[in-house]
Amino acid sequence: MVNVLFVCLGNICRSPSAEAVFRALVEEQELSSKIHTDSAGTGAWHMGNPPDARAQQIGKTRGVFMSDLKARQVTPQDFEKFDYILAMDNSNFANLEQMKPSNYKGQLKMMLDYSDENTGEVPDPYYGDLSDYEHVFDLLGPAAAGLLADILTQNDVK
Ligand code: 4NP
Question: Tell me: domain 2-154, CATH 3.40.50.2300, correct?
Fold first, then answer.
């Protein structure tokens, strides 16, 4: 089993969207029994909440569903469980680097490191409008595809 965790600040906009986009690819390729997904936030404000309605709305227009997801905060145990931990922006990445045990064997990376089309950060859409959520999904699609390709290359999941 390969365990993949997506991380942003609140775990209600970018990381559940990333999880849902990636999960849809995993399901399409019938790999759900081999690749486990989750998402979490570095902050705790939204714990237990479903994804932001705007993320769900834009997701739905692209066939990506996330109403089952609930926000939680990143924990130290996540570094024991997850083989891949993907940060959405530089601040999330810095927070995760601080939490990361020195013996962590997995991959702590920026989400867009796996994209052929974009680099850098997935910008926080929370104080923006629907077009900012569209942009988040535009960035996440190629990155999720690149991430899955990397996982299939690096791990014996077939
Ligand atoms: P996310 O967006 O990190 O993509 O889930 C945010 C959600 C909530 C807040 C900030 C960012 N907030 O400050 O409450």
Answer: yes
pTM of the full structure: 0.98
From 38, 52, 89, 124, active-site residue:
124
Annotated catalytic residue 8: yes
Residue range 58-100, pLDDT digits in tens:
999 999 999 999 999 999 999 999 999 999 999 999 999 999 9
DSSP string for residues in 68-89: T----B--TTHHHH-SEEEESS
* Cα dihedral 114→48→67→34 (10° resolution): 50
Quote the CA–CA distance of 77 and 123 in Å, as a whole number.
27
- Look at ligand 1, atom 9, and give the residue with the nearest C-alpha: 10
